[in-house]
Amino acid sequence: MSNPPQALVIGAGSAIATSLIVSLLDKGYAVTAVSRKPAKQLSSKELTWHETEYTDQAIAHICKTIASQDISFSNIFICNGLLHTQEVMPEKQINQFSSESFLTVLSANTLTPMLWISHLPKLLTKGIKTEVVIFSARVGSIGDNRLGGWYSYRASKAALNMLVKTSAIELKRRFKQAQFILFHPGTTQSPLSKPFTQGSNNKTVFTPEFVATQLLSILEQGPQSDTCLYLDWQGKAIDW
Q1: Which of 30, 60, 146, 200 is most deeply packed, by most CB within 10 A?
Q2: What is the pTM for the complete model shown?
Q3: Separation between Cα atoms, residue 164 and residue 240, nearest integer Å
Q4: Could you tell me if residue 240 is inside a domain?
Q5: Which domain covers residue 114, as residue numbers?
Q6: What is the pLDDT of residues 112-151, one digit of tens each?
Q7: Which phi and psi angles does 131 have, rounded to 5°?
Q8: Angle between helices 15-26 and 208-220 (to 10 degrees)
Q9: Are 205 and 193 in contact (CB under 8 A)?
Q10: Is 140 a domain residue?
Q11: pLDDT digits over 142-178, tens only?
Q12: Which long-range contacts (C-beta less than 8 Å, at least 24 apart) are formed by 222-226?
């Protein structure tokens, strides 16, 4: 009996990540999940959960722990992100911009994913195809910015896009079969988007299950790039 394909899901406590884990398990994957707290509703002999904080030291430690298990991952998903907190909301006007809010959003959306990416050399295996998916957002596109607003969130995702593409250029020199994808999931029903979707009849508000299914469908189609792709939930390229 062959070994199951292996997936690593980072930031696994989010609504989309939880649905992604369920979909991966249903497809026969063994899943390693990482988050601050495990999802209580998920249980499987093929699911291993690691709890960690998102400090430099904690991320380095957990990556070393996972690397020591000598797992060849077929897929790595980095799902960390923040749209708002009770104190921080997307700015509608420039006079709402503040250093405190900006740094909070930048830390969650740019710094934390990049800390994980900085340890990818420990988690990738030469000669093994690995699809690395980092959750981004369409509003991180400079070319697609026609509405303005959301200063901190836009900037944090634009910075993430640049850093991931730069990382992909470097890492693909060593791991030629690695594929990097920045993924825009669309507006999804979750605590993250709840203040912006309550009472909405907009049919483009997706369930986490739909987004997980779409993402895995895109990956099954085998999108290829020399460096890094920036795709929406339909698998269509987004303007950088």
Answers
A1: 30
A2: 0.93
A3: 12
A4: no
A5: 6-232
A6: 999 999 999 999 999 999 999 999 999 999 999 999 999 9
A7: -95, 120
A8: 50
A9: yes
A10: yes
A11: 999 999 999 999 999 999 999 999 999 999 999 999 9
A12: 223/179, 223/181, 224/179, 225/179, 225/180, 226/172
